[in-house]
Design brief:
Helix content: 40-55%
Shape: elongated
Oligomer: single chain
Strand content: 15-25%
Strand order of the largest sheet: 1-8-3-6
Radius of gyration: 19 Å
Number of strands: 10
Amino acid sequence: MSKCEQCIVREFSSLKALNKEELLKIANCKTSYTIKKGEPIFEEGESVNGIYCVKDGVCKLSKLSANGKDQIVKLIKAGELLGQRSMISDEPANLSAVALEDMEVCFIPKSEVLGFFNSNNQFSMNLMRNICGDLKEADDHMVSMAQKSVKERLAETLIYLNDTFGKNDDGSLHIQLSREELAGMIGTATESCIRLLSEFNKDGLIELLGKKIVLKDIGKLKRLAD
């Protein structure tokens, strides 16, 4: 069993406020999972009953709209927690979490987390700050969707993917979203997304290597995004 106090990723989340005794409690009750690319960690409407700490890998948080389109709300990387909002609101998951690459996650039961919430003030403050951060991001995203063109949103998303998740050795974006997923992030039809990527490619902003995307002119993309 891996020791929570020796786990580096906990330093990036609310769990950093827990003391050694509390971390030992978690180590004794957590369950570790390997989630394969494309598999769900949980689905919209499911009772999560705890939080997931992402040890490795990236997943998408998405919501299925009435017309059956998958709208990506957020991408989650190592060191972040999943399920904290539905745990505190005591409601089923509002979003689905699906692995975009192979992942390692640890599940901590709700009873244990709520115990720390009551006894460790710094932990509960951290958790609240995280949820407030999610709300701020949701506000910013809503304004972006309302005020920016699809072209500007695509540029903004490509910069975000580059800055947050980095590149592969060949210079392509590390997170390889399908054209459909990318369209879901910027809130447009897949065909429009494909057409815009071709336009960006022709203008020398990006290079398309099959399904991979290489950012060629980050300065111009940033100017377009702003």
